[in-house]
Design brief:
AB_hydrolase_sf; Rossmann fold; AB_hydrolase_1; 258 residues; AB_hydrolase_fold; Pimeloyl-ACP methyl ester carboxylesterase; 10 helices
Length: 258
């Protein structure tokens, strides 16, 4: 396990690192979604024959998984991106291929916009592109964001546990309580410009993987017109890398061959 100090107060991001084959020059960075951890979500894919062989960092965002959970951190998408940037520079990673799921995809877009020297290619896995209105009794970030922080810490967390079910809760229970709520609030609010607008302006190769059964993304034609390769992956839900690992590996390998 590796780590790097990423805040002035000494909070550390940690990651599991898979070494590349001799002669490999590419580095890949995997970022998880809200309430998740990169190891459980990406290890099997990173070891897939189509993707193995490059140095790969399975990185946990600050507040989640094996990383520190500071309670004095704001957990905005910009702050997450800057913390990841500090970790990558500490790991001597520049021009990385970033593979990022859900909220991690939103962080990755902001990372590429704010720290362009760190990101060479993006593979977004059903990532958040737009703000969403908070709504009670919903399972994702908007459901968590419907609570005030005081309400979430007092009674909202066990209510969320019942809504999300045991699979997601297996990693979500590792998250810092404040980190989970603040990250959800800021993910629902989005960025200015929005993550979608930032993505459209990026000049690097960009691939967006979405579940086939979900149908076209809002504004998918505009994404394609701006050079984003949008791929509909069959037989999967939101967790594409877990639901259809073979197709995920094939499409990710294709994206990283550009």
């Amino acid at each position: 396990m590796h780590d790097a100090r990423v805040t002035a107060d000494g909070a550390r991001i940690r990651w599991v690192e898979l070494p590349g084959r001799p002669g490999s020059t590419r580095t890949r960075v995997c970022l998880h979604g809200l309430g998740a951890s990169s190891g459980p979500y990406f290890t099997a894919s990173a070891a897939h024959p189509l993707l193995a062989g490059s140095r790969t960092l399975l990185m946990d965002l600050l507040g989640f998984g094996i990383s520190d959970r500071p309670t004095d951190f704001g957990y905005t998408l910009e702050e997450h991106a800057d913390a990841v940037a500090a970790a990558l520079e500490a790991a001597d990673v520049y021009g990385a291929d970033v593979i990022a799921h859900s909220m991690g995809g939103a962080v990755a877009i902001v990372l590429a916009a704010r720290h362009p020297h760190l990101v060479a290619r993006l593979v977004l896995v059903d990532a958040n592109l737009d703000p969403v209105a908070p709504g009670p009794a919903r399972p994702g970030s908007s459901g968590i964001a419907a609570y005030s922080e005081e309400e979430f810490l007092a009674h909202g967390r066990p209510e969320v546990r019942e809504r999300v079910g045991p699979h997601w809760w297996a990693t979500m229970r590792l998250a810092g309580h404040e980190a989970l709520h603040r990250s959800a609030v800021h993910l629902a609010a989005g960025t200015t410009p929005t993550m979608r607008e930032l993505l459209l302006d990026l000049k690097i190769p960009r691939t967006f993987l979405r579940p086939l059964d979900d149908g076209p993304l809002p504004g998918e034609e505009v994404l394609v017109e701006h050079g984003v390769r949008v791929v509909a992956v069959p037989e999967c839900g939101h967790n594409i890398m877990l639901d259809n690992p073979e197709a995920f590996a094939e499409e990710t390998a294709r994206a990283l061959a550009v």
